[in-house]
Amino acid sequence: MLYGILDDDGAGHLDAKVELEGTAVLLHSRGGAAGGRPPRNPDYQKAFRKIISRLRGEAAANPAIDRILLDSTVGRRLPENERVLLEVGELARLSNEEAAATAAHRARGMGQAPDAKGGNSTKALRIETFAQNQQDLISLLRLVTWTDTVEAAASHSRLANSDQRRVTASNIGQAVFRLLSGELPARFDLSKDYDVLLDDGTRLAPKQVFALALEEALNIEIHPSHFSAGWGQPCFDLIQAAGFRIVHKRNAGANDEQFSNELATRPPDEGDKEAAEGNLKVVTHIRRERASGLAQKKKAAFLAEHGRLYCERCLLEPAKVYGVAVGNACIEVHHASVQVKDMEAGHVTRLEDLQCLCANCHRVTHKELASSWL
Question: Domain residues of the chain, as ranges?
């Protein structure tokens, strides 16, 4: 079985294939681009150093490696004792970097004619270890099964649509929540043509939303080349399926006007009422630290946790009745802990202080609260 090696941050995979044979690690050789094909295992050297450092840790004397042998096609024809690059005794006297450099230097000339020049220092290697079993090796080296998804992630080529469609509504909701919290995916710029338009008018870049969602769904580092954004693409399809609107920047004015009209024809959300009903200092404080809107952030967090928006009081899921795009707008955010009118200056509202309620339950709740104040 082929494996890939997780990078230190766990977000990406090195583009270098390894196998396990018993408790030995087989590192595939590196090869250059040929015949229109991309280079093979370009992260070979980095992977070799990771294998050594993760097996031995910081202590060079740690006898986790028994020996390192040449494992190329030519090398396997040699007597076993002539294939050995490093053994445990010599390894104990070398640092991790010295061990990697020494093995590479010796591999360069091994298997060549005595008068040959040059040589390849990135040949296939066999690293024999003192591990108890393969599972220990997989855990220690942080190996993941090499699949088409891993290969695409490592080479930054486009992910298959089937892999992209593993993104769920919860992943999309979590991505929106992270963006509203100020987290931006590396390598992804602001959108050029389309925006994800939230209920409070906040605009997010669709590719930023989908990149964060893909990272969570696939547990790989996502690059712009991994997917495309546009109508008919999984990016737009899944964002809309999660209940978020996508609008064109050229029609921003018309869409904003349409959005304003929609807001005018439906009862106001609790987040919409903060400026009118709450202490103005409180709203300023919240908006300064939560610029994208507390109500929208709550809905995104709720969607991320449950995969759908529903009323926490009557359990109605409007999206099932009206469709996702319209139905999710029927869920409003209620201040369950401290009412806006009772907030003192400097009050900070947390997401757990809020509830997602349908429009009916929201009004009933406020009627009940009003009655209790009489």
Answer: 2-145, 161-248, 290-370
